[in-house]
Every structure is written in structure tokens, then in C-alpha cells.
Amino acid sequence: MGLKILGTGSYLPETVVTNDDFAKIVETSDEWIVKRTGMKERRITEQPTWVMARHAAEAAIADAGLSPEEIDLILCTTVTSDYITPSMACVIQGAIGAVNAVALDINAACAAFVYALDMAHMYLQHGYRHVLIVSAEGLSKITDYTDRSTCVLFGDAAGACVVGWSDKGFAASLGSDGTGANTLFARRPLNDVPFVEQVDPQSVDGFPDVGRAGVLYMNGREVYKFAVSAMSRALKEACEKFGTTPEQLDLIVPHQANLRIIQSAAKELGLPLERFYTNIERYGNTSSACIPVGLAELGAAGELKPGRKVGLVGFGAGLVYGGCVFEL
Ligand code: ACO
How far apart are CA 221 and CA 127, in angstroms? Predict the structure, then answer.
């Protein structure tokens, strides 16, 4: 049993931040950013993350030709939920009127859309008919705009997909390596709790002291190394499970963390770069939203043609990775 995309949608905030804009606030240049990352612009917003999610979700449901009441399950992926509780998925469910949907969030950073598809696939096998996956990230809310090595990388966006049952197969390969948790993280700010002695989280978890809680810290070089090998491994394994090879994939939509990572993975897989969809130059890294935003753009361009074999692959904080393969 497989899975097919019934509809896609996305939301990109209006405010565009260029590389030259960053050169005004940190010591960097358009030349450095383009050469090292492939990024030229990204979008940011002060809107709550769930508002972006709502726009993308409604677009995907309309594109699928469904009404919100026909959605059985909402999986929301995010690392920038507006609330500690309730889940973003519940907030979205209420906002769009998906009265029959079960709703829950998934936190698997930039691999989360692939994790969500794999979960959707399992739920579809148990009788759910229409699953809405909505990936929304307001990364500007957790970006340290004084740190040039991370602030130029991230943007805000939401992407969504409605998926349903298909007889054309689906295979995924997911993995996690928590020993790398300290290479990419954002620590939650502490509350001053009366009656108990304050514990320094760093003395307990051994993570690097980054001074400020609530913003992303990244050891770029370590994550880079993990990313290249995780991407090619995840795609190869997913292809093997599906009964195909990377060469036979018509289209690959990868996580958009760095164009050089995508180029290296393409080289390692022996595939032409043109097989990989990229929009990193326009939106930067929008964590779990990258892949569904890419799918929505491909859908709007008429590129999600029946019979095409698609590979999706993501990696990120955790550390986590996930690749999947299915036929449109
Ligand atoms: N402008 C100018 N110089 C910079 C900038 C900048 N924006 N950022 C870093 N530099 C400097 C560094 O300070 C360093 O200077 P030094 O040599 O004097 O110390 C020099 O550039 C080289 O730094 P590196 O970190 O080695 O640069 P690198 O080529 O590795 O590129 C980058 C950095 C782009 C972050 C890269 O390591 C990368 O893409 N890593 C992976 C990121 C990733 O995949 N993240 C995924 C998950 S994100 C998530 O989960 C939300």
C-alpha cells in the first residue's frame, strides 16, 4: 500500500531580506553568503507561526478539492510552535474547521516532513482517508541576529500537503543520532522557580555555553558532515526498500540547508544536480517547511505528474534524517 499527494499549498511571508540587508547588521557579504550557501533571499514575518500554517493548510485542502471536514488527521511539524501547549495542530484544526480531524505535532526539525509522511502512511493503512501535513516554521523567532554564522541561513515559511491512499507503494528510511544533539539546538528559556535551587542546564547536559537561551546554536562544520552522508544514505535506503535505485528517481526534493550540501549529495549518489529541486536562493533554510514548499511550487508548475517517482530527503537537529520514495 502506498500514498499519494492529493493537494499542496504554501505560504511565504511578504517581507524579503536580502544578503545585502545582512551586511548592514553583521560582518558578512552577498559574495560570502552566495558562495558558501547558495542563498540570496529569505522571507521573515512577525505573524504567529500558526497563522502561516493556516494559509498553507487551507490552500492544500482547496487544491485537493476537499472540505476541512473531510480531513481525518492533521500532523503539524514545527520547531517554533507558538504555544508550549496546546499543539499547533489543534490550533490549526480549530482555525480551519477540520472538525473530524485528530491533531498532533511532530518535532523532528528539518526532517520532520518526511517523518510526518511516514506516519501518515501508517495511519492511512489503519483506515484514515485524508491526512493533512502542515509544516510551518517561524525561524526568525529563534534566530540570533548578532551571530553571522547562523542568522543568514534561516527564513520563515509554511508548506502543506493533503495525502491519501494509493496502490503504488511508499518506502521511507528514518534515523536519529542523539549524540549529535549538542551540535544544533535552541534551549528553552528558564523560569525562575521559587522554592528550588536553579540548575544550570549546561552543567547537566554538557552542551556548549551559547550565552542566550531561546536562539539557535549550530556547529556548522559538524552538521555539514552529517548532512552529506545522511542525505545520500537515507535516499539509497529508501530506494532499496521501494525496490528502485536513485538513478530511477525522476525528481528529488531535498531539505534546503546549503546548496553545497545538495551538490555533494548529488555527487555521492552519482546523480545530476538538475534532478534535485532547489529554491534555496529565494527562501533560505525554512526547516521542515522546505520540502512541502518545494512540492507546492512543483505542483503549481504542473511537475507532479502521475507516474513520476519522487524522492524526498531531510536532515537536521536531533540529529535526525529521513528519506522517502513514492510514485505520484
Ligand atoms: N559571513 C562571512 N563570514 C562568515 C559567515 C558569514 N555569514 N559565517 C561564518 N563566517 C566565517 C567564519 O567565522 C569563519 O571565519 P574564520 O575562518 O575566520 O573562523 C569562516 O567564515 C569559515 O567558517 P565555516 O563555518 O568553516 O564556513 P563553512 O564553509 O562551513 O560554511 C555554513 C558555514 C554555511 C554554516 C556551513 O557549515 C553549513 O551549511 N553547515 C550546515 C548547516 C545545516 O545543514 N544546517 C541544517 C539544519 S538547520 C535546522 O535544523 C533548523
Answer: 44
